Amino acid sequence: MNFYEEWVELDLNPIISFSSTGKIIYSNQEAQFLLSRIKQKELFDLALKHAPQTFGVETTYFDLNIKNYVFYAITVKYENEDEIHMKLYKSAMVKKDSQLSTKNTNITNIFTLVDLAISTKKIKSNSKFIKNYDPSIPEFKINASEFIKALNLIYDVFEESSMLTTSVILKIGEYIRIDGKKHSIISVEIFSNTECSVKDFNYKDENASFIITKDEDKITIDLPLILD
């Protein structure tokens, strides 16, 4: 690997090359991490959408939110009909997974915490709560107070929902990277059967030990599976 290849490989922004059929020809380290969270086709379609009208290079500036990522620009290049290349520019405001805090975490049963939050909300709610737990998930390190705080805020957003489904699952093939080490992801998904003002949900914690992602009808908390 020469200097320029190594420089691209270490770039903190995702760089991906696709074939004309959407097959990945090359992806740097950051892109590989992104691809573990976002579907390949979604990124290929994004490249096609912002590609120049003719052969060449085009950079588009935008405010794009995908999962827990925020991008401010995309550069797309193609010189023939066989390949298309893209680079996404991450906003400096985005909290990287490697900066997640492991302070104030203790080995805890995540199901106990979720049950506690649901029991509290049931008292003042007419919503039907459905739980979908993977019983194989072991106890692991969680900042319990912050996790409960985030859960309560999420349930507040869905207070008008008639039915809420809370799933606690192990994400297969996805990881959170902290200090260079990959950890499996335990995901807590709160899904509403009715449309709610998810966009108004805002959770900030400079010392967060998890990642929160907003979608149209659900909010997800991703936690690293740290056992010791």
SSE layout and pairing:
Layout: H1 3-9, E1 15-19, E2 24-27, H2 29-35, H3 40-49, E3 56-66, E4 69-78, E5 83-90, E6 106-108, H4 110-122, E7 128-133, E8 140-142, H5 144-157, E9 163-178, E10 181-192, E11 211-214, E12 218-224
Parallel strand pairs: 7-9
Antiparallel strand pairs: 1-2, 1-5, 3-4, 4-5, 6-8, 9-10, 10-12, 11-12
Task: Describe the protein in words.
- The chain has five helices and twelve strands.
- The chain is an alpha+beta fold and 228 residues long.
- A five-stranded antiparallel β-sheet has the order 2-1-5-4-3. The protein has a five-stranded mixed β-sheet with strand order 7-9-10-12-11.
- Helix 4 runs parallel beside helix 5 (144-157).
- It starts with a helix and ends with a strand.
